[in-house]
Amino acid sequence: MLIDGGLVLEGGGTRCLFSAGILDRLLENQIYFKHVYSVSAGAYIGISYISKQPGWARRSLLETVPTKKLFSWSNFFLRGSVINIKLMFDKIPNELLPIDYDAFFSSGQTLTMCLTDLRTGEPVYINEYQDKKYLMDMCCASNSFPVISRTKFVDGRPMTDGGMADAIPIRKALSDGVQKNLIILSQQSRYRKELKTSKLITTRYFWHKNFVKTIKERPYKYNSDLDFVEELVHQDQAIAFYPEISLPKLITRDPAKLRELYDHGYEMGLEVVKKVKEFFKF
Description:
Elements: E1 2-9, H1 17-28, E2 32-39, H2 41-50, H3 56-62, H4 73-79, H5 85-96, H6 101-105, E3 110-117, E4 123-126, H7 132-142, E5 152-154, E6 157-161, H8 170-175, E7 181-184, H9 199-204, H10 209-234, E8 238-241, H11 255-279
Parallel strand pairs: 1-2, 1-7, 2-3, 7-8
Antiparallel strand pairs: 3-4, 3-6, 5-6
Helix pairs in contact: 1-2, 1-11, 5-7
């Protein structure tokens, strides 16, 4: 069933395996959201959700992350990025675990990815993709975490991870007129970001003054967005789900922890399906 509502996916590196588990439950129950808003790793798993390939995100991460093929410091020193860009955005989706691009582009769904413009510090939202290469290029840009990834250029503009400017794009969904949303977070409900700034990032990008300002304001905006999500849920304008287990760092290669994240999301997906049917009334 195609729901005329929004699905908002936070990023979170390998923690997004939690979200992947929930998305697989939605796919198994043929629940498809017309509007999908995503950031960083959320964009990566969002593609396979729209192409309707349950298990794709789980396999793509569980079969590569523990082996150090996808994330490693050797990648950084050899290729300038902790992420193996060629593997993650080309070889996996085009050769090892092919994305069904025909299904993606004919789905009737819209995937909006958030990127951050290094020059302005503002979020940039992309929702039109001319072909599969452009789709994966935009996903790569949304996943280009500062310092540990190379800057990605989009139409001549330097871009970095979308989570720097808009980690939870619920306000974008609302501004687009999508009034009812399912929001999947990658942090526990009690989590709030510490009010401190990464000196490594601000030093590395000191000439991008607007971006540095965004980084300094990021903890306040993120916490404000979390409060806003809770307010929407309280007012019955959205439903939100959070992981309820102890969480690893942004990137973990521990296979047991990776499987735990996915299994936790997949199990919670039973409750998500129930709540979605009640909230969207079908």
